[in-house]
Amino acid sequence: MTKVKNFVLHLGHSGQELLSTWVQADLAAAFKAQAQGTDGGTSAALRRLVSKAAIGQAPAAPRGAGTGARVGVRLKAAERAALAEAAQAQGTSSANWLRSLAIVHLARRPQWNAAEIDELRSLFRELRAIGNNVNQIAHALNVAVQTGEYPPHQGTATREAVELLRFEMRRVVAVMSGNFEYWGLPDEDRPTAAPGAVERADAEASTAEAKRKRRPRRRPTRFAESE
Question: Is the pTM of this model over 0.70?
Answer without folding.
Answer: no
